[in-house]
Amino acid sequence: MAAGGSAIRGTRIGSGPMGEQDHGHHADRISISYWDAQGNEVVRQYSADLPEEEIPEVVDHPQSGLPAGRDRENPPAPQKTEPYKTHLAYVKERRSDDEAEELLDDALRKLREKRGEA
């Protein structure tokens, strides 16, 4: 071996022992399985001291994109996507046909007064 060479390549002098113990303390974990409507399973890891109410009941499956729940026999149903609503659709939700008619008549009356046609 040449002078000044290292017996273990890629390590520095004084770096200490190599291995898992050097990577710090690992918290205790629990594994929770979730299933989607196609029967696909996804496992999520949570801290063992996390309260039960903070562990989600439903997660998104990373491959299928479907919601996945903890009950293998009764997975959550896929959500229906709402189509894009136009501005007019939102207005129609807020106003009845009678209100719309009244507003239109009022606007036309003001426009005619402004033009001097009243």
What features would you describe in this structure?
This protein has 118 residues and is α+β, with helices and mostly antiparallel strands. Among the domains are: 27-69, no CATH class; 82-118, no CATH class. It has two helices and four strands. The strands form two sheets. A two-stranded antiparallel sheet has the order 1-2. The protein has a two-stranded antiparallel sheet with strand order 3-4. The longest helix has 19 residues, at 97-115. The radius of gyration is 33 Å and the shape is elongated.
- Main sheet: strands, sense, barrel: 2 strands, antiparallel
* Shape verdict: elongated
The overall pLDDT, averaged over residues, is 84
The counted number of beta strands is: 4
| End-to-end C-alpha gap | 108 Å
- Structural class estimated from helices and strands: alpha+beta
**Rg from Cα:** 33 Å
Spatial sequence of strands, sheet with the most strands: 1-2
- Low-confidence segments, given as residue ranges, are none
Q: Total helix count?
A: 2
- Percentage of β-strand residues: 15-25%
Order of helices and strands: EEEEHH
Helix content: 10-25%
Compile the SSE list and pairings.
Layout: E1 29-35, E2 41-47, E3 58-60, E4 67-69, H1 87-94, H2 97-115
Antiparallel strand pairs: 1-2, 3-4
Give structural attributes.
4 strands; two-stranded antiparallel sheet; single chain; 118 residues; 2 helices; alpha+beta
